[in-house]
Amino acid sequence: MVTILLGFFFLFSIIILGFYLAFFAFTRDKSINPGEANLPVSVIVCAKNEAENLKNFLPPILDQDYPNFEVIIINDASLDNTLEVIEEFQALDGRVKLVDVQNNEAFWANKKYALTLGIKKAQNPYLIFTDADCAPQSRNWIRHMATGFQQEKSIVLGYGGYFKNSKSLLNKLIRFETLLTAIQYFSYAKLGNPYMGVGRNLAYTSKQFYDQRGFANHLHLRSGDDDLFVNEGANFENTFICHHPEASTRSVPKADLKSWLHQKRRHASVAGFYKTKDKVLLGLFYASRFFFWILLAILLILQVQWQLVLGCAGLVLLLQAIVYAKSAQKLQETDVVWLFPFLEVFLIFTQFGIFIANSISKPRHWK
Asked: Is the pTM of this model over 0.70?
């Protein structure tokens, strides 16, 4: 039995090493500097009860150093004064366009329905999506995201991080999980298999949307307007990754563990609808890390060839540290790297709890 456990430990270690070696595809990727683009862009923001966030984060969007864009703000049946805030911005800036969505029985609390109406409202063929609680991290955000369209790509994957709070351990956990997710989807896309994007910073053409029949194939699911859309339509030829620091957005992270877990449950609820190859790869990546840590603890407790076990674990952690450090430097998340072994273990077992909870019941609304 001990020999079998040791064999599985080495097997999972090799699998993890293989994944992180593949992730060097992202760490070695060079950012493309934006040209003097003048492509007509529509920035689309879906807002549900986001009055205060719109006051704070819509101005940086309107202040973009880009000559040709409009901003479509979708009021998704808000109960606060979101509509009034949008109308105030609309009165001040002619680039702001309003889509006011009312709830109905067929599409109750369905973000995809609201986004579809916003896309139909857009006058421009190049669409950039972000959330109402997101702020571009430079005045060149649109210019960088539009670079992908200049490369004749129809889908552009950007980085959507979270604002930093140096005093919060939860904040570091949230940003570490976001960093790891970005490493995965950027690396897979670079290797020719784009499988997801994040709605906090995502772009695609209206042609891509209509050719793909929008969200029709997963409209019945409450989540997945970003990752399922990309999973369905992205490929090596049509996808561009945009990870320049000036191209990122940051949004307000959840302030308590319960709210964050609910958010992650909602995101994880659609993973079962990914393409089979993506489910296999993601499942293998998670399972190998899960059993690596369990077997490491068991073998050390039993003191089974502990020098060899520690040496193997050290090699795995060293490669992970290099990938995290290089990726965090690209995405400006360097303060989470030194905590990565603790954050990784906590995240792995948290994801296991989310999997169990979603197996019992799935979240029903996007907010």
From this structure: yes
